[in-house]
Design goal:
- By secondary structure, the protein is of the alpha+beta class.
- Helix content is 32%, strand content 25%.
- The strands form nine sheets. A seven-stranded mixed sheet has the order 13-20-19-16-15-14-21.
- Helix 14 packs antiparallel against helix 16.
């Protein structure tokens, strides 16, 4: 950093003299990224007018290829040559791109220059010459590593050959299948097909059927297809299940002797009514000093699943159980998850426990982490526990009410410290034996749910502190943390601007606690309003995603400096990792390999995201199936998204979301105002805004593509006329729309991603030989 005297001198430098100073900063720090404020400070530029010059120069240096924009507004020194290595992203609309390994901006690759590279392939490209105003474009010159390529679709079998009709955003072409490669598949079957070749002159890739999932449209077939789409298993390998079956229920006496005995302490589980994998239990007793001893007892899965065993290897690969609308795909074999490890009532079970001494104010006075044995007295459903909380009557009422009282005090303190309250409505279905959705309901988080949640959070927090917050002068050992980074300032600022149109304000600067309390106030204020779901959804998107890592940065959403996942080892592999590390360190073991555990953390985070995507896809499938039985039915809803190809509408009654395509708004020519999140009729000035109430009927559904189309109906709620919009405003919108017309994406892809770009294009034609 330069001194003040030099700083003032540099503040008077001409623009042409600033460029070498800027480049010197980047060359001295080639691996770091900087924004214009950081660069201005580093070269001593303080005046606003010259800081604006720095801002402009960074963009010019990027255009000249001297800098790379690593993220919006942040740049780093361009050490690239003309060749770049990265991951190829194929798109069915032809807008392929390379994501560079060094984290720079994506490079467009036209289909003619793709060398038939497939999505996920590691490739080398050659940068093409370009004009100053144009974006980077490249040509694939070598495919370094091929990614596995499997696609799911419906078979169209002809006498001598077949095609897989796929609806994949990564591939525009159907897949040609020689008759001998059908693997028993028939027309109308849904199948998984692997691409084995794509000759240079062939329009269609050549594939072979890997597995036939069943007849398209059947419930099991479609659910298996959803799992396969995300690379998730839908059955358990027989040899691993048989290995698990060998593990006995009986606990040797010598093992019980090693553990703290809670079999005579009142203990129970509280879980969903359809749950079978009970991996946590609570015990409670009054101590002689008037305090409470609360035990959080977690199934000791790692006692039974040893590192390197075939059961462990499969669990590591899966990383999580997958919860779909009509089933659970377990991480561990059912003999373990629903049997040996499940904390079922009136059975002796091995547990790993965090035992707390709390006073009446729910302050933790002491705690210990120990291996235990329990015998649960009662299995409560959430509804049964809630009934005790509300009526004060029922089995173990004193214990349940004491836990509820303590949990509420823990929760109050947590929010006072800055924890954020995201209590969203979860969509659930009542389904028949064939998987057909009969009705929709919403899962509510009541006091019984919050009781369990608070004690699980408490255990997770203290386990993380036990390892991550060592005694003075002791080195921190490798551990698995569940972290949640601070929200991106730009996203928060955009969110703040967005909610102003609904009359709300949000604090985006200040301490973490100040900002989180402002978010909580907003979430309280929107409760019960028509924009509640919309604002909660946008708020969540403004937040960072929670992930697993060995590098602790705290958990912003919970306002915890230390946090991990310890309480669900039956369904989450990170919890198993935590159990093993905890046991190792309690017994005096040395620190584990950080590289090994960081790799496992990364894998677990990725699998968690895939499982969440599969769950959402299964919900969407059932929503489409449910409304497919209700064509023509009218619903009240709210506009949940606005794009240049239509309006997204979420129904109030069941939270199903679909689209009113712009082609069906035929009473006018509608223009998209992206700054005000609305469509405006050019002649009649009718306006449809994000968050507006609207009345629609179910017009069309497509189960294969998981699409719902609505149609507007004549209703006063749908007449939003704005006579204050000037002709000048309308012409400006029309001009802006025409400028974007050469950048329109295909309708197929736009429906899922909801970007703010114009599209009136129709679905693409299938490409075949």
């Amino acid at each position: 950093m330069v001194n003040n005297e030099k700083s003032e001198k540099k503040g008077r430098l001409k623009k042409i003299e600033l460029a070498p100073l800027i480049m010197a900063q980047f060359k001295d720090n080639p691996s770091q990224s900087f924004n214009y404020k950081q660069i201005s400070d580093s070269i001593g530029v303080k005046r606003d007018i010259q800081r604006q010059q720095v801002f402009g120069l960074l963009d010019e240096l990027k255009a000249e290829g001297l800098l790379i924009e690593t993220s919006r507004g942040k740049y780093k020194y361009n050490t690239r040559g003309k060749e770049i290595i990265g991951t190829f992203e194929r798109r069915s609309n032809g807008k392929n791109q390379l994501i560079p390994e060094d984290g720079g901006e994506a490079v467009f690759v036209a289909e003619r220059n793709s060398m038939r590279a497939m999505n996920g392939d590691k490739v080398k490209i050659l940068l093409c010459a370009r004009k100053k105003s144009e974006s980077h474009e490249g040509e694939v010159i070598e495919i370094l590593e091929k990614a596995p390529q499997t696609f799911i679709g419906v078979l169209d079998v002809q006498p001598h050959y077949a095609f897989l009709i796929n609806d994949n955003k990564f591939l525009a072409n159907d897949i040609f299948i020689p008759k001998e490669s059908l693997n028993g598949g028939k027309s109308g079957d849904k199948a998984i097909v692997k691409i084995i070749d794509w000759p240079e002159k062939a329009k269609n890739p050549i594939g072979e059927v890997v597995e036939v999932l069943g007849v398209s449209g059947q419930n099991n077939t479609e659910i298996h297809a959803i799992l396969a789409e995300f690379g998730l298993p839908y059955s358990y390998p027989e040899d691993i299940a048989k290995e698990a079956d060998k593990i006995p229920f009986e606990i040797p006496a010598e093992e019980i002797e090693k553990r703290e005995d809670f079999r005579k302490t009142t203990t129970f589980t509280i879980d969903p009514k359809d749950a079978k994998d009970f991996d946590d239990a609570l015990s409670i007793k009054k101590l002689n000093n008037g305090n409470w001893e609360v035990g959080v007892h977690i199934a000791d899965v790692t006692h039974y699943v040893t590192p390197g065993s075939i059961i462990d290897n499969e669990g590591e690969k899966r990383a999580t159980s997958v919860y779909l609308v009509d089933r659970v795909v377990p991480m561990l074999p059912e003999h373990l998850s629903n049997g040996v490890c499940s904390l079922r009532p009136n059975e002796e079970k091995l547990t790993f426990s965090c035992v707390f001494e709390l006073n009446e104010n729910a302050e933790v006075l002491n705690y210990r982490i120990v291996k235990t044995v329990i015998n649960s007295n009662r299995r409560f459903t959430y509804e049964e526990a809630q009934d005790i909380i509300e009526t004060g009557e029922g089995d173990f009422k004193e214990e349940v009410l004491a836990l509820d009282r303590l949990a509420k005090k823990l929760r109050t303190k947590r929010f006072e410290n800055g924890s954020i309250a995201f209590d969203r409505h979860e969509v659930r279905f009542n389904i028949d034996e064939n998987g057909k959705p009969l009705s929709v309901y919403f899962k509510e988080s009541k006091d019984a749910n919050k009781l369990v949640e608070e004690f699980m959070l408490l255990a997770n927090k203290y386990v993380a502190e036990f390892v991550g917050k060592p005694e003075r002068n002791k080195k921190i050992k490798t551990f698995v943390y569940r972290v949640h980074d601070l929200p991106d300032p730009e996203k928060m600022e955009n969110f703040s601007i967005f909610i102003q149109r609904f009359g709300y304000n949000l604090r985006t600067v200040g301490s973490n606690s100040d900002v989180s309390k402002s978010i909580n106030k907003l979430l309280d204020n929107v409760q019960g309003t028509r924009e509640e779901d919309l604002i909660e959804t946008v708020a969540i998107r403004a937040m960072a995603k929670a992930v697993y890592t060995t590098e602790n940065i705290g958990h912003y959403g919970l306002a915890f400096d230390y946090y991990t996942h310890f309480t669900s080892p039956i369904r989450r592999y990170p919890d198993m990792m935590v159990h093993r590390l905890l046991d190792r360190y309690i017994n005096g073991g040395s620190s584990a390999s950080v590289e090994k555990y960081e790799e496992l953390c990364k894998h677990s985070s990725e699998m968690e995201q895939l499982a969440a995507n599969a769950e959402r896809a299964s919900i969407k499938y059932k929503q489409v199936e449910y409304l497919g039985e209700r064509l023509g039915k009218e619903y009240d809803g709210v506009i949940s998204g606005v794009t240049e190809w239509g309006l997204y509408v979420e129904l109030n009654e069941n939270k199903c979301e679909g689209m009113v395509p712009i082609r069906d708004l035929d009473d006018d020519y509608y223009l998209f105002d992206d700054k005000n999140y609305c469509l405006i009729g050019r002649r009649k000035r009718r306006i449809y805004r994000l968050g507006d109430p609207i009345k629609v009927k179910v017009a069309r559904t497509n189960l294969e593509r998981k699409i719902i189309d609505f149609a507007l109906i004549e209703d006063d709620n749908n007449n939003h006329i704005n006579e204050n919009i000037s002709d000048l405003d309308i012409e400006a919108l029309a001009l802006n729309q025409s400028k974007k017309s050469d950048k329109r994406p295909s309708l197929k892809n736009s429906r899922s991603s909801k970007p703010k770009v114009l599209s009136k294009s129709k679905g693409k034609k299938r490409k075949r030989n």
